[in-house]
Design goal:
The structure is a single chain. With 177 residues, the protein is α/β, with parallel strands linked by helices. The chain has one domain (3-171): Rossmann fold (3-Layer(aba) Sandwich). 33% of the residues lie in helices and 29% in strands. Strands 2-3-1-4-5-6 form a 6-stranded mixed sheet. Helix 5 links the parallel strand 5 and strand 6 (146-149). Helix 2 packs across helix 4 (101-111). The radius of gyration is 15 Å and the shape is globular.
Length: 177
């Protein structure tokens, strides 16, 4: 009988980096060009199939799309409770959002130290990047994570990122400290 998992994953990052658009692309394969401010948090449920040691498993992701305004840090810690992982998102065309990624990772890992993270540099379909792929890879190595250049608009690497975080949350939870 195939295994089933229920995992909570948080999408974190500054405002307007595309967190909600990434969720919409992954869950319903749609993209909306207009900006919609997330107030508080929005939770979406989605099933994904992964292969664990050659066996198929179903992971029900509870995707928490959390507001990106840093002035709400005290709320963020409460939202992180029970999370098995996080997708830390920046807008590759806005350097300041890339520079804030370490703060998001450190805040999340304070609340969820055993949880895994992936770094997503979104809007990679646009020109005039504020950071490079090499910088993303270096930052990912520093935090023992993988980094993806994603585009919610085109769908580039979106499914792969959600698939990897789902697999990591199921397989890394049993690793010793």
């Amino acid at each position: 009988m195939p295994e089933k998992f229920l995992k909570k994953v948080c999408l974190l990052g500054d405002g307007a980096v595309g967190k909600t658009s990434l969720v919409r692309r992954f869950v319903s394969d749609q993209f909306e060009d207009k900006y919609i401010l997330t107030v508080g948090t929005k939770v979406v449920k989605c099933d994904i199939k992964v292969s664990i040691s050659g066996a198929e498993a179903t992971v029900t992701l509870m995707i928490w799309d959390i507001l990106g305004q840093r002035m709400h840090d005290s709320l963020h810690a409460a939202y992180y409770s029970g999370a098995s992982g996080a997708l830390i998102v920046c807008d590759i065309t806005r350097r300041e959002t890339f520079d804030h990624v370490p703060e998001w990772i450190e805040a999340f890992r304070k609340s969820s130290p055993k949880s895994c993270v992936l770094l997503l540099a979104n809007k990679s379909d646009l020109p005039s990047w504020g950071a490079t792929k090499d910088e993303l890879d270096e930052l990912a190595r520093k935090y023992d994570a993988n980094g993806y250049l994603t585009s919610a608009k085109t769908g580039q690497k979106v499914e792969q990122a959600f698939g990897e975080i789902a697999l990591k949350m199921c397989t890394e939870a049993s690793k010793p400290e």
